């Protein structure tokens, strides 16, 4: 099993913390986001780790990782960043956003999943969102899960809380047929986009597609995406206000219901 960490973005909303370093090197509770992830992977025996970098790439250097640079990071989004490391999509590959940290138990659930495509979903997302946003719906996305715990809709704009059965946290695993499907349908979608229609998201150019656009496309073409359900135990560091909130809660010893370490 190997891991790919997507860490190419500029982290504009985290400035001034990202003025001179990439987002994944911002320290939270005294440790960089990248170190948090590497340590968690190592605890579960995952040592083959690739980080896809872009912004301030030169600052990311570690003997514990392989580094691939997305040279087009300023004009591309998550999907194209992932496929900069297509050669690293192997028999069983975990893909993680570079701006999250997660408890070991969450990673263990993902590692233990035997499904071809597994996507981590936080059922208690509202506990975190209500602290981060005045109106949680402004940043939340759709998530519909059927009785077999398979995702049927993800990443769309929503107007009601009841359209959300969880939130995608930026953590997933592809293995066996799931790896093949990911590669095949990515290529198919990219080829179709040459006709000036992006099948992942008609409102965006293909290179700007979000990961949830690709996941939703996989659902539409018949792939099964298994929801790995969790109840908190992770944090997303997307903005400077997130940083202040988390450090504040940590100092007050009021963080443990959301994330413990």
Can you put this structure into words, describing what you see?
With 261 residues, the protein is of the alpha/beta class. It has a single domain (2-195, 203-251), classed as Alpha-Beta Complex (Spore Coat Polysaccharide Biosynthesis Protein SpsA, Chain A), CATH 3.90.550. Helices cover 28% and strands 23% of the residues. It has helices at residues 33-43, 78-82, 104-112, 125-132, 177-193, 211-220, 240-251; strands at 2-7, 27-28, 31-32, 48-53, 66-69, 92-97, 100-102, 117-122, 143-145, 151-154, 167-175, 226-230, 234-236. It has a seven-stranded mixed sheet, sandwiched between helices. A two-stranded antiparallel sheet has the order 2-3. The longest helix has 17 residues, at 177-193. The radius of gyration is 17 Å and the shape is globular. 41% of the residues are buried.
């Amino acid at each position: 099993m190997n891991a790919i960490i997507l860490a190419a973005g500029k982290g504009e909303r985290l400035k001034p913390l990202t003025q001179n370093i990439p987002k994944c090197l911002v320290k939270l509770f005294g440790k960089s986001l990248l170190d948090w992830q590497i340590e968690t992977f190592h605890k579960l025996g995952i040592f083959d780790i690739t980080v896809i970098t872009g912004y301030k790439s030169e600052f990311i250097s570690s003997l514990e990782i392989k580094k691939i640079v997305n040279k087009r990071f300023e004009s591309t989004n998550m999907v194209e960043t992932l496929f900069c490391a297509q050669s690293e999509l192997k028999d069983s590959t975990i893909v993680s956003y570079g701006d999250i940290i997660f408890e070991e138990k969450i990673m263990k659930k993902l590692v233990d999943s035997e499904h071809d495509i597994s996507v981590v979903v936080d059922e208690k997302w509202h506990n975190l969102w209500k602290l981060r946003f005045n109106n949680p719906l402004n940043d939340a996305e759709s998530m519909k899960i059927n009785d077999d715990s398979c995702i049927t809709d993800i990443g769309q704009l929503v107007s009601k809380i009841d359209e959300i059965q969880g939130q995608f946290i930026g953590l997933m695993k592809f293995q066996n047929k799931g790896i093949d499907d990911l590669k095949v349908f990515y290529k198919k979608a990219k080829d179709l986009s040459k006709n000036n229609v992006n099948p992942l998201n008609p409102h965006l150019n293909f290179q700007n597609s979000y990961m949830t656009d690709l996941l939703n496309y996989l659902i539409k073409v018949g792939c099964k995406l298994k929801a790995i359900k969790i109840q908190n135990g992770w944090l997303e560091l997307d903005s400077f206000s997130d940083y202040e909130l988390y450090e504040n809660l940590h100092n007050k010893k009021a963080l443990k219901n959301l994330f413990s370490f």
